[in-house]
Each structure stands twice: as C-alpha cells, then as structure tokens.
Amino acid sequence: VVPAAENVTPESLTEALHRKLPNYMVPSIFVLLESLPLTPNGKVDRKALPAPDLALMKADDRIRPRTPLEGLVAEVFARVLNVEEVGIHDNFFELGGHSLLATQVVSRLSNSLGISVSLRTLFESPTVAGLAEELQNADEEPAVLESVVSRSYANVKEISLSFSQQRLWILNQLLPDGSIYNIPCMIRLKGKLNLQALESSLNVILERHNILRTTFEEVEGVPVQKVVDPSWTPLEITDIPEPFEKTVDRLAEEEASHVFDLTQGPLVRFRLLRRHEGESVLLFNMHHIVSDGWSL
Question: What pTM does this model have?
C-alpha cells in the first residue's frame, strides 16, 4: 500500500476493510511503501515488491479454527506449508503457497472428505475460513471420489500413454535433441557417506517404481510404454579436484543438458561428484515424461 495520507496505518486499513468486506477477504498483513516499484513500461513490478514480514503477524493475532471443517483445512495448510499454525484468515498463497502445493492441498482435502475438491475453489477462496465456507456450501451430493486401486503391470507388455505423456512424446518428436524437459537436481552431502548404502537405495527406488524403468516406443504408429525388467545400476562416482565448486557447476550444467533417448532409456541418471571423504554432490536427472515436480 502507498498511503495517500499520513494517518494511514495497517490497523486503520484493516478496520476500514472489515466494514466493507467479509473477514476472509481482508489481508492478514499490509506492507506500507513510499512508492510501488514499476517496470519500464509503467506496470507494477511484482517481483520487486518486498515480501511481507510474517513475523509481524503474531500467533496471538490469529483467529483459531471455529469449526471442525476449518480445523481440517488449517491442519492441511500447516502441513503442506510446513508451518506451526495457520489462522482462519491466513491466505495460503501469502504464506508461501504456490500451484504445486495447492495441488497437494486439494488432494489431501479430497481424500479426507471423500469428495472432489477443485483447484479453482482454492484459488478463489485461499483462506482457511473462505475455503471451509466453500466446502460447507458445496452441493449436498458432491462428486464422491472412488478409491484408487493399484494395478500390476507385470504381465502387460505395452501400456498406453497418459495425456501428459502424449504431449511430451509429441514434443520430443519435434525436438529430439532437446533437453528442455529434463528435471535435473543437485543434492549436497556432507559427512561420512556410505557409498554402498547410497547405491543400494537408488537401485531399490528404480526397482520399486516401474515408471523409472520405462521406455517409449512407437508401435504401428502409436506410442506405447514398455517397462524394462529391473537390473543393477552401478553408481557413477567421479573424484573432483580443486577448484571443486567450479568443476561441479560445469558438470551439473552438462548433466542438465543431457539428451535422453525415449526409446532406449534409462530416463533417469545418477552421478556422484566426490571432493573428499566428507563432502560430495549427488547429481540426478530425469525426463519429465517419467516424473514431475510433486514426484520429486
């Protein structure tokens, strides 16, 4: 907020808005600025706006859930956002939520309530009170979710692609030498590292999740998934001399640019960069057709 008068305070703004808006629409925190940061074309530069200081919102100022439904929504918000407590007027997105976490919220609420909760509902009512009110006012007979049953594909040779996989497969046909749909990650490991345990753990993950052993081939003009039988994959280990950080950055960039062959696989790669006994960096890379942000 850029005040138009000297007597404008967060308290006065809160009081004024409470007279015109329902509680769940009143912001929890106001940030007063001398001017709004602007882009060269005169629009508000949202990325340059200072982040609200959540410490200003004391726990005592938060209104605790008043109903079991508000309590459930607040608990789900807190778990997903990894915060201790959420008040009924706290805004999910102002507390650090984003679309990926929002997916987890609606999934958990759907499972807990046994009904279908849409992402749109959360985006339109991002506070605990607002979302609980929307859920309370939902249709008397909302769409009931059926239990998800795990199916075994042990004896299935060819599996159809999901819609998302079809999209990525088509894009790969257009840009077979591209790496734009890679999901690269880097994890720093400090302390004594048990290489045998790390290698075994990665192989157990590959064995457990069929999708990480899947290739994509075209059969009679139609793309299909084919699951490869588990096999032991040794962990590639590279001892890195000094300057360590510079070499790690270069190798991480090279790994992120790796071009996956969807027809051959594997579509997940691991590599350990070791400085000395007490410090290592684990690089792993996956193609988006076998993983997504939530799966990480």
Answer: 0.58
